[in-house]
Amino acid sequence: MERLRQDIRFALRSLRRSPGHTAAALLALALGIGANAAIFSVVYGVLLEPLPYPSPERLVMLIDSNPTRGFDRFSSSPPNFVDWRDQSRSFSGMAALTRANPSLTGGGVEPERLEGAQVSAGFFETLGVPPALGRGIGAADDRPGAPKVAVLSHGLWRRRFGADPAIVGRAVELDGSPHTVVGIAAEGFQFPSRVEVWQPLALEITPDMRGAHFVGVAARLKPGVSLERAQAEMSVIAGRLEKQYPDSNTGWGVNVIPTRELVVEDVRPALLVLMATVAVVLLIACANVANLLLARMASREREVAIRTALGAGRGRLIRQFLTESVLLALAGGALGLLLALWGVRALVAMNADNIPRAAEIGLEPPVLLFTLALAVLTGLVFGLVPALHAARPDLQGSLKEGGRGAGTGVRARSARGALVVVEVALTLVLLVSAGLLLRSFAGLSGVSPGFETAGVLTLEVNLPESRYPDEEEEGESSKVAAFYDQVLADVRAIPGVRSAGAGYPLPLGGSGFVLAFVVEGRPEPPPGQEPNSHIRFVTPGYLETMSIPLLRGRRLLASDREGALPVMVVNRTMAEKTWPGEEALGKRLTFGDPEDEDVEWRTVVGVVGDVRHEALATEPAAETYVPIGQAPSSAATLVVRTDGDPMRLAAPVREAVRRADPDLPVFAVLPLAEVVAQSLAEQRFRTILLALFAGLALVLASVGVYGVISYGVTQRRHEMGLRMALGARREQVQRLVVGQGLRLVLTGAAVGLVGAFLATRLLASFLYGVRATDPLTFAAVPALLAGVALFASWLPARR
């Protein structure tokens, strides 16, 4: 311990004697360690930290799948859920849930749209998180006609009701109907994500609902039951239901998937790539600092030689220099934590909506331990080469007055050159990866979504079923259609509005409903092999406002309402897949049972262009546009095409909605161009980060090249003076220096190209419209590195 204290004191004095070298090393280490700590905090919070539920490893989701229809992950039907719950023996609890977005009204405050969920009885028990106050949803609540109740989230309770415990037992108005608050959820509990209120599912299960897939199913494994055993049991039950209900269940299976896997599966690959990226940045920083220390060792060779002559062994010298390295790394780690604190906030702010469990991300104790371990390991990594080199001094050369020791020898130059080659190779891998993602993102941004975004305002509304029922009494017109008629008429009268409509769902907002259909005049396909189409509910004026091109026939008209001929407009893909080589106009199909005498047959009256509804990177699917006047939809997005900036008309459009229904909240008020931009948020996030880290690596590598060449010039000044005295021209000496730098960079680039060729295979799933071996990127990046190296070498060559 006494020797260790001596080593630490000497290391601190030594670092203070070289403030320039120390500051440069601290900056490089702080950037490398800080980047790793920031990304690891996200990786830990999202991928590694257990879900905030008791025994989270036993919490699973039951997910339907139908590979023949291309559905790997699909929601379940309520009758199937009931059968699973009654027939399975592997689970201690099972609950169904579906998203709902009720409006909180009353109390003299502005109506607010809430993120909500409708859940079956036993939901909170299955999750294992009882409410903080009151109770959860019970069996008496989860039945048709039962008194309406709700459980509020802890955040909503504090925000809207001042954390008043007396709210339990009182009524709040949701969608215009009073709901008795029976409980307040535990603080931080949000399942599904961002939910603020839970209501009973209260479904009346009927046989015709078996083909309607719209609920998720959460379950808890019994103690001692493995995932494999539960999967085997559920596969048997699914096969039994397939035989029992061939019309609705043919081809449908069920997968038992850990809940955490479902939560993070979309973001896991990107986070792991980013973690590998910052690890490479840290290796480059280590190589840089090792080069700095090697250069500094040249000025300490006489000191090392004297210590050796006085009896210091090789192990003693190595320990001394490693102590200095570790102290330097710990100081860099402390600075890195400050950078990581800022970086974590920036990362979450950049992409909070697309990072699951974003609220749980922070510099937790495991992140601090990771940073400490990383700093110590980093100190050992970058300190080992200089320490080994310094522990073998040239005693005779170093102790001679004016002698030149090993710092100017071949061994030292080779070590520094090798470190530069490593830096350049790693930097090239990152630059090629960033270049591929940039080209992919540029290509994706240039994809036409199938509609025009300029000058279009979007506003979402959600009509409560209590006041806007989907089905009216015979002879009555639809209140849903009447609402849209009134609002759109008022909106079209606003100065500056060119056209307006409403539709659900908005492009790039999800797949919506997917229904199987039967074409008139064709034999009904076997169960499970029916073609299907994505259904879009739209008003007259929607297709025109979105500038979706009409290819044949007509668009939807105001006359396409209840009581008129059932019609639809299909997209190009739907027309070509369903009626290949034929004219789709005038053809009919049904989404119901063709054997039913009351089945509704819809006639194709128009064919429009394809729209990328799910994502810009996803090819258009078969789609059908149905008039809201004939198939009312409570949820819709108003789209308004304006002259100029669409946001300047947000207030008058809101007012038009308020005149039609003062208790109806309007939310997600955005220009359509912003909706498209938000759909690329995930790709933009990882592209920016990888480009940022690749740029940082390029800077570090450039500094490394400059440092090695500059140090070499300093050490060879006497040699260069002799060369010029013997007749060498200035240009020849400059070419000698620049050539040395270029040789190092070209060697590193050759190694890096091989590494990039292998590493970019991991990026293939992130790329759109560009191959992982894109020749342009693989040619441009080495050229860029050569240019940077030329500049970094020319600066000391000038001197």
Characteristics of this structure?
single chain, 799 residues, alpha+beta, 13-stranded mixed sheet, 12-stranded mixed sheet, 23 helices, elongated
Would you write up a description of this structure?
The chain is an alpha+beta fold and 799 residues long. Strands 1, 2, 3, 4, 5, 6, 7, 8, 9, 10, 11, 12 and 13 form a 13-stranded mixed sheet that branches. Strand 9 and strand 10 (177-184) form a beta hairpin. The longest helix has 38 residues, at 314-351.
Structure summarized in a few sentences:
The protein is α+β, with helices and mostly antiparallel strands and 799 residues long.
How is this fold's topology laid out?
Elements: H1 2-17, H2 19-48, E1 59-66, E2 71-74, H3 78-87, E3 91-100, E4 103-105, E5 112-113, E6 116-119, H4 123-127, E7 133-134, E8 149-152, H5 154-161, E9 171-174, E10 177-184, E11 197-200, E12 216-221, H6 227-244, H7 246-249, E13 253-258, H8 259-264, H9 268-298, H10 301-309, H11 314-351, H12 365-390, H13 395-399, H14 410-445, E14 456-462, H15 479-492, E15 497-504, E16 513-516, E17 518-519, E18 532-538, H16 542-545, E19 550-553, E20 567-571, H17 572-578, E21 588-590, E22 602-608, E23 623-627, E24 635-642, H18 650-660, E25 667-671, H19 672-679, H20 681-715, H21 717-725, H22 730-759, H23 775-798
Parallel strand pairs: 6-11, 8-10, 18-23, 20-22
Antiparallel strand pairs: 1-2, 1-12, 1-13, 3-6, 3-12, 4-5, 4-9, 7-10, 8-11, 9-10, 14-24, 14-25, 15-18, 15-24, 16-18, 17-21, 19-22, 20-23, 21-22
Helix pairs in contact: 1-11, 2-9, 2-11, 2-12, 3-6, 9-12, 9-14, 9-20, 11-12, 14-20, 14-22, 14-23, 15-18, 20-22, 20-23, 22-23
